[in-house]
Amino acid sequence: MKKLAVFCGSSNGASNVYIEEAKKLGKELAERKIALVYGGASVGVMGAVADSVLEAGGTVIGVMPGFLEKREISHKNLSELIIVDSMHDRKAKMADLAGGFIALPGGPGTLEEFFEIFTWAQLGLHQKPCGLLNINHYYDPLVALFNHMAEEQFLHEKYRNLAIVDNDPKGLLDKFNSYEPPTVKSYNTEK
Question: What confidence tens digit (pLDDT) does each residue in 109-139 have?
Fold first, then answer.
């Protein structure tokens, strides 16, 4: 895996642990020579993970819609900053560049990005790993919701563990290295 997309908040969160663990992930990515693909901001958890990769000598590619460049305060020291037209273009570009996806704590935007990628995996549109870095038990309610979805038969059992969960960056990346995608029914779009 050469590049990983990270979805995360442009805020710091309520605890310093979110920033500290984002930095640990960034350092681990750089040590493994995995480029970071992310939303391009210099603030919050987004800025922390990018700064950490850069400080460790790694590569960081930011992808940001033009209208957010000032609002999210684009990072000025990236290896590359790609400006796109829309949020849809941002997600498509990140998905195209990345060999896997990690969600760190964030708000509705982070979840929306993660769920789209997760859904694409269910549909067989990609076979890349999707992970949740469960810092400070942030994603425990989401993991419980996935289990509830499966128990209530709104999520097929084989997809229950499609989201790879770990509370440690090294552990999550190790799980990515051994990821085996589930078999997905092929959808024929030809008539």
Answer: 999 999 999 999 999 999 999 999 999 999 9
pLDDT digits (tens, 9 = 90+) for 152-184: 999 998 898 899 999 999 999 999 999 998 887
Query: Containing H/E element for 37?
Result: strand 35-38
Give the sheet arrangement for strand 80-84, strand by strand: 80-84, 60-65, 35-38, 3-7, 101-103, 130-133, 163-166
- Going by C-alpha positions, the residue among 117, 147, 113, 148 that lies closest to residue 130 is 117
Strand partners, 35: 3
The whole-model pTM stands at 0.93
**C-beta of residue 41 within 8 angstroms of C-beta of residue 64:** yes
CB atoms near residue 44 (< 10 Å): 23
For 84, the token pair is 């796109």
Residue with tokens 């805020």: 11
d(CA 140, CA 127): 24
